[in-house]
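Thread: "does anyone have the structure for this chain?"

Original post by V.I.:
We have the sequence but no experimental structure in hand. Need at least a predicted one for the grant figures.
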Amino acid sequence: MKALAKLWNIVSTILVVLIVILAILLGGVRLVGLRPFAVLSGSMEPAYHVGSLIYVKACDPADVEVGDPITFVLDEDLNVATHRVIEIDAENEHFYTKGDANNAPDGAPVYFKNLIGRPVFTIPYLGYFSNWITNPPGMYIGIAAAGVFLILLFLPDVLKKADEADRRAAEKKREKEQAR
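Reply from O.Q.:
Generated one for you, tokens below.
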């Protein structure tokens, strides 16, 4: 039984560490001014692979140069894209962009006000998980898994205390019977 408890402690510690690392990578990076975005299309291959998670740092439009990749709000539905700047129209406050893997430039310019920032780094494959966990059914599965994990994390302590309470109750009962 002690070996099982020790194994459970090791497994639960590893799971907690992994969950904390994922939480930092998926949301905690916002504390240092980075915003994570999942790469959902191949328009920027090979710079940013489909399924990667890119981390974007806010920047001033004046700091952007031709050749820089930028992340921006694409449309009224607040879809986000990352493409490379191929031309800057400072007078009209527009960037002209193109995906590295695309044959033609994007059809519409990007307004300076739609700039989110520049990608700083990327982690391959983490975007798949990020996209899955932030949308149903992955969100529901993630919440349920977290609940089950919390129950399993505290279950050994609850069972141990229940066992001790049963043992104490049995001792008191024996003492009362012996007193008679």
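V.I.: this helps a lot. The mean pLDDT is 92.
O.Q.: and Strands lie at 34-38, 53-57, 69-73, 80-89, 94-98, 110-111, 115-123.
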